[in-house]
Structure formats: C-alpha cells, structure tokens
Design goal:
The protein has 499 residues and is mostly helical. It has 20 helices and twelve strands. The strands form five sheets. The protein has a three-stranded parallel sheet, with helices on both faces. A three-stranded antiparallel sheet has the order 8-10-9. Strands 2-3 form a two-stranded antiparallel sheet.
Length: 499
C-alpha cells in the first residue's frame, strides 16, 4: 500500500490521482465492552476514515495545486475559503487558523439503529428517538447527529471537485485487525459512501480473517467479491511452486535493491567482474539447488526471504572453504532451522491445540504420504485451528475450490506445509513430492485421497481435543464449533436435534 501510494504521487502531475494511506490499526476505537457493538464500531471507524481523508487533503493542498508555500504564488482567498468550509463539513475542527481532528466523534442511537436494520444504512435519515432510547443514548454515547450517506457523499464529491482531482485513491491497510462482525457493517457503509464517487478503494487484508459481506434474504450486505470489488491473492503471486520464473525474478530484484541501497559500488563491481547482468545477481550468491530451496522456504513472503538470505550468507562467510563460492543448501537449511525456531515455532508452541494439529498433519502428510501439498475438504476451511496455523504461517493456502470429476459435490482447498516444519525434522525437500496442484496428476478419486485429510482425520482430532462428542442418533462425532450445533444444537452430520 505504501509503495502504491509513492508510485501514484510520482505520477501525480500527469494523472491527478491523489492517494491517502490509512493504517486502520491506528483508528480502531476503544469502546467499553458494556456498550461496544459492531454497528457503533463501524460508524466510528468510518468517521475516522473521513477525518483521515480530510486531514490528508488539507495538509497537502499546496502540493495538490502545485504551489510552493515559500513562493509568492498561493491559492486564491476565494478558493481557500471554499476549501476551509468544505474541510470543516467532514469531521474536522477549525480554530481560525488551522484545522485539526475533532476531539471526539460521537455516535447517536439513530446511527446504530439505522445500521442494525437489515445491516443497512438508509440513504436519508428518518429515525426518531423515543424518550427511553434518548435517555439510554445520553448515558452511553454523547448524542450527535446521525449519518446521512447522501449528505456525506455530496460533501466528498464537492471536495474532490474543489481539489481538481481526477481520482482519489483510498488505501485501507490492516483491515483484518477489525472485528469480523464490524467488518461487514463498515464494508456496507463504505460501499454506499464511495460507489458513486471518483474514488478507488483498495483494501489489504488477510483472507481467512476477512469478512467483507454476507448475503441476506433480500440482498447482499457489504462488498461483494466480483461485483463491488475484485480480489487478488497476493500471497500466491510469488510462490515458487506456482510461478517459478516470476518468483525468481521478483526476489532477484528485491535482493538487488537491498544490496544497492547498502553498497552500490561494490555490487556494480561484482557484476562487472562476473560479466553478468542485474537480472542474475541472485545467482552470484546462491548455488542453483540452494536458490530453489530458499525460494521454497520463503513461501512468497519478502520478509522471510530477506531474513533467510542474511542468515544463510552469514553461515557461508563463517564456514565456507576455498572451493565454495556461493551459499550452499546446507547454509540455507541451517538458516531456515534457526528462523523457524525463533519466528514460528515459538509462537506455535504457545498454542498447544494448534501445535498438536500441526504435528498430526506433518505425520500424516510429510512422514506417511511424502508430500508437501495436501487437500482438505472446503467445509473444514473455516476451522479455527486451521485458520490459526495459517496465521502462524505454518500452513499456506495454495488454492481454493479444487474439485475433481470423480468426486462430484466435494470441493477441496489445497495447502502446503511450511518448509521449516519438515526442515526441522531433517527431511530433505528432494525426498518429498513438491509438485504444485496443477502438476500433481490427480487422475482419480484414489489419487485425491492419497494426499487429502478427510472426515476421519478431523473427527478423530476433534474428539481427542474435546471439541466433539458422539451423536446419539448417527454415532458420528459432532463438531461443537459447527454453526449447526452452536446455534440450534443440531448434529452437523445427520442434522438431528441432540440437546
């Protein structure tokens, strides 16, 4: 998001696209638990987003119009007055000389009630308060004016016009830090707010911790993928097993930029001495097999690659012989083992259930089936323990919605086990099947089951950790986390009432 913001600013004179980067972690409200609600959280975050938009535009007025604040040429007083008036309408305070963020943003009962009604905001406000609700509101929130999407949209449209912008880019980072229930309400407000404006919205989020919308009986609430927004799985872009050439080229460029920023002259000299181009700088440091290993171990994550490269190079410098010219596989594996122990294993060990699940997956997939990739029926993709292992970067989601003609009606997700998991067991990658899903040659149902974890695996695991019990009707394990059980006390297998 930061890089995109810089790129847009570099081309601002040509395209008049102005970016506003917002780290949502900075504006997530802290509300007492007794009065907290997804609706109030969403409205507060939305108001803070408007503040961030306003304050960013205000502080960059001179650069937007191309004026140097130290020169004689400045914005006309008439335009300045209009801009000041416009900024003050979008949740900013004006003390006569400068603008600042409002000291506090209030929420009214009208706002939360409006959002609770089918999880929607009406275009124009019409709610009224009874005496009881008014009293309650004053005790819980400072009573303020409620949101009119039409009014706020008009003010934003006027602001974009006054600033003479072709388009406003709003870049929302760390979306997944917001509570999942709040996310739906916030997505709905954002859709109503920005859909008709010259605004491009980009959201950076972690897939398994993101809930942008839900379909109700009457309509879709929030942002619908493919309709309102178009998602792109960045985690898959530079995965070596999926895109070998693209991944290698990306990390080559990443390494070159880091090295150039440290010592540009030495890197140019190194390239000249070896008579090679910038595009091959990574090969000067890593032997071919070691290069493959570090790209697989990085799992498409730049941070992991840089740390592994530094640690691998340190080991090469300390232990290399006169014949060794480049980082070896042994150096990479040793570096990865340390990185896994300090960056991932320590966090996994703090979560005993996830540690147990990972151990069983490694035993089943790595040790028994000799594979790196495996399949899980899609119905288990929302399992909180699987999601936690993805958050801990012990498992990596590689493909969603894989189906096979011999197994109709069953959809799978494809995962890979982190390199560190089997490297820490001293299992070499060469001993495992590391084929990407498209090259696995899954010809029939028997091939699928060879590398898939089916119902029996998860049922056994849930029984072992006490999150399942046998159904008195069908005798199959009931997942106590399944919605059928948590909401209606129904067996998630036979869907009979068990309570």
């Amino acid at each position: 998001m930061r890089a995109l913001s810089e790129k847009l600013l570099d081309n601002f004179k040509e395209k008049k696209y102005f970016p506003i980067y917002i780290d949502l972690r900075r504006i997530i409200p802290l509300i007492p638990k007794e009065i907290e609600s997804p609706e109030s959280n969403a409205i507060l975050i939305f108001k803070h987003i408007l503040q961030e938009i306003s304050i960013n535009c205000y502080t960059n007025v001179n650069s937007i119009f191309g004026y140097n604040p130290f020169s004689d040429k400045n914005i006309s007083q008439q335009k300045t007055d209009k801009l000041f008036e416009q900024f003050s309408k979008i949740y900013l305070e004006f003390d006569g000389t400068t603008f600042r963020k409002s000291k506090e943003l209030s929420i009214s009962e009208e706002e939360t009630n409006s959002l609770k009604t089918s999880a929607l905001l009406s275009v124009t406000p019409s709610a009224t308060l009874s005496a009881d609700s008014d009293k309650k509101t004053r005790s819980e929130f400072k009573l303020g004016s409620y949101i009119s999407i039409l009014d706020v949209t008009n003010e934003m449209e006027n602001l974009i016009s006054l600033l003479e912008l072709d388009r406003l880019f709003i870049l929302l980072d760390e979306w997944s830090e917001i509570g999942t229930e709040t996310q739906i309400h916030l997505a709905e407000i954002i859709k109503k707010m920005f859909a008709a404006l010259k605004v491009t919205l980009k959201i950076a989020a972690i897939p398994n911790r993101t809930n942008l919308g839900i379909r109700t009986d009457s309509k879709f609430v929030g942002l619908e993928d493919g309709g309102d927004i178009f998602g792109y799985p960045l985690d898959m872009r530079y995965v070596f097993e999926v895109n070998k050439t693209q991944t290698r080229d990306f990390f080559n460029d990443l390494l070159l930029k880091h090295l150039n920023s440290h010592d540009n002259q030495s890197i140019n000299k190194l390239l000249e001495e070896n008579k090679t181009q910038n595009s091959n700088v990574i090969n000067l440091f890593l032997a071919n097999v070691a290069l493959n290993e570090i790209l697989v171990a990085s799992a498409g994550i730049p941070r992991d690659f840089i740390n592994l490269f530094i640690n691998s190079y340190d080991r090469f410098i300390i232990s290399h012989t006169s014949n060794a010219k480049r980082i070896s596989v042994k150096n990479v594996r040793s570096a990865n083992l340390e990185w896994y122990e300090t960056d991932k294993k320590e966090q996994i060990d703090k979560n005993p259930i996830e540690k147990q699940l990972l151990t069983e997956i490694v035993q089943e997939v790595i040790e028994r089936k000799k594979s790196i990739h495996f399949l899980i029926p899609e119905k288990y993709s929302t399992n909180k323990h699987i999601q936690k292992l993805i958050d801990l970067r012990a498992l990596h989601l590689r493909k969603s919605g894989y189906s096979h003609k011999d197994h109709s009606g069953v959809s799978y997700n494809v995962y890979s086990i982190d390199y560190g998991c089997y490297n820490s067991l001293n299992i070499a990658k060469s001993q495992l099947d590391s084929s990407a899903i498209d090259n696995m040659n899954l010809k029939d149902l028997r091939d699928i089951r060879r590398i898939s974890l089916e119902d029996s695996f998860f049922q056994r695991f849930l029984m072992n950790i006490g999150e399942a019990f046998s159904c008195p009707k069908c005798r199959k394990p009931i997942d106590t986390n399944h919605l059928a059980y948590t909401k209606q006390k129904m067996c998630n297998n036979c869907f009979e009432i068990v309570a």
